[in-house]
Amino acid sequence: MMWQPEAETMSRKGIEELQLAKLKKTVKNCYDNVPHYRKKLDEAGVNPDMIKTLDDIRYLPFTTKEDLRLNYPFGMFAAPMKDIVRVHASSGTTGLPTVVGYTRHDLDVWSDIVARFIVAAGVTDEDIAQISFGYGLFTGALGLHYGLEKVGATVIPVSSGNTERQIKLMKDFGTTVLISTPTYAMYISETAKKLGYTKDDFKLRIGLFGSEGCSIEMRSQIEDGLGVFATDNYGLSELMGPGIAGECEYREGMHIAEDHFYAEIIDPNTGEVLPKGSTGELVLTSLSREGIPVLRYRTKDITRIDYEPCKCGRTHARMAKTMGRSDDMLKIKGVNVFPTQIESAILGVDGISPNYQIVVRRQNYMDNIEVKVEVVDGSLLERFGELENLQKKIQKQILVVLGLDCKVTLCSPMTIERFQGKAKRVVDLRFTQEEK
Ligand code: DLL
Question: What is the pLDDT averaged over residues 6-19?
Fold first, then answer.
């Protein structure tokens, strides 16, 4: 099933023609209505009439989170405030939030692109959908909310937190679709088990998980625990929120809504556009946004894009699950390490829970990592022989996947912090500890 079959199955030529027409309009809108863009384009010596082909996009300067912060709160809006009907914001970990505004047309587009991945996962108007993302300035909950309503599903806007209540509602209301971060889904599953439920106590059938990465291994554990078919969806508030890309039933990459966003892959160090199929940083340009059009936004997310048509019939290109963010990448003893790679390595080992933490330290001017992993069976911690075996197995797995020898610490069940939104897996002590 497709939500907007005509848009979702356009020919490549059709997509590119539409993208070029919309790109020209977007650049002009930015130039005419956003002083920040006018200044940056003038400085780069670019005027909107110079955009003749899609490749000409590379003449446009990049936009970063910093640009939005410099124009806090509404300085990047292209539409007058009377036309802005909603704002959202992303807090980030440091500094001012980045604020985005939506016109009524933006909200319409948004709910349609969210509906696309909801329907692609198999959700229908007969489903009962529990939204366990936090409601508020975060785009996750309201983004999914309007998409699900558009599809006609019954929405339970429970928000995140109060996990026992989540589970009670899930059972009493007969929830069939769960919407949350994968980490929170894992926690809900764990808590349900602790309370004595099995997956047969619920009517769950689909999980729409996003807002953070989820390895295939972790996805299988959530699917087994809750009895769902899980799909991944990607987005960021600066460009819209959820809906920018989402998996179909084949789960071989997330279809990018190419009629509304133009995607490029660049080398994060040089900014150079990389050939199709390369892995690098995703750069996105909005093609339909009125409230806050965004030119060449550097997402910092590392991925690659596959332009081959998909078995599902959709023609929109698919982005691979992200390897992580370029700013999360650790360089340990010369090896580039993404937390997701460690996750994949450890979750392949039996007897390990998917909760882990990576502690980075600097000793003797060298960075090193300790991976803390929870065992499923706490009594194992008293059986030294087995414990040592398990530890060695995990260490070997990480060595095989990353070529990195690191310390592995096994912890008792339920001792590593749980998250109700996005997980924070890396604890970086390098700059808080004194160097020894
Ligand atoms: O997380 C929007 C969203 C909400 C997407 C709900 C999907 C579902 P922000 O809070 O602005 O927006 O965070 C954006 O989160 O640059 C990625 O680093 C990360 N991210 C989002 N989705 C995924 C995903 C929302 N499926 C940042 N896989 C992005 C990996 C993701 N990372």
Answer: 98
Helix and strand element counts for the chain (H, E): 11, 20
Domain boundaries, the chain: 1-327, 335-428
Per CATH, the number for 1-327 is: 3.40.50.12780
Nearest to 282 by CA among 292, 270, 295, 296: 296
Alpha helices, H only, 71-158? 104-120, 139-151
Tell whether ligand 1 has an atom less than 6 A from the beta carbon of residue 212: yes
Confidence band for 435, pLDDT divided at 50, 70 and 90: very low
Indicate the range of 123-127, 293-297, 334-338, 410-414 predicted with least confidence.
Answer: 334-338
80 CA → ligand 1 middle, Å: 28
Q: Find the angle CA(256)-CA(262)-CA(268) to the nearest 5 degrees.
A: 95
Q: What is the pTM of this model?
A: 0.93
Q: Containing H/E element for 188? A: helix 182-194
CA distance 334 to 316: 37
Contact 140, 230 (CB under 8 A): no
Overall CATH class of domain 335-428: alpha beta
Same fold, 1-327 and 335-428: no
H helix runs in 201-245, sequence order: 216-226
259 C-beta closer than 6 A to ligand 1: no
Over residues 251-263, mean pLDDT: 98
The predicted model gives 167-187 an average pLDDT of 97
* Mean pLDDT, rounded, for 147-155: 98
Count of C-beta atoms within a 10 Å radius of residue 270: 9
Angstrom distance (rounded) from CA 161 to CA 144: 17
Structure-block tokens of residue 202: 């619920």
Q: What is the pLDDT of residue 334?
A: 79
Distance 200 CA to ligand 1 centre (A): 31
Q: Report the pLDDT value the prediction gives residue 375, as an integer from 0 to 100.
A: 92
Confidence of residue 94 (pLDDT cuts 50, 70, 90): low
Chain centroid offset of residue 157 CA: 21
Return the ligand 1 atom nearest residue 322 CA: 30
Radius of gyration of the chain (CA): 22
Atom of ligand 1 nearest to the CA of 238: 11
φ/ψ region of 238 (left if φ > 0, alpha if ψ in -120 to 50, else beta) reads: alpha
66 φ, ψ (degrees, to nearest 5): -60, -40
- pLDDT tens-place string over residues 201-234: 999 999 999 999 998 989 999 999 999 999 999 9
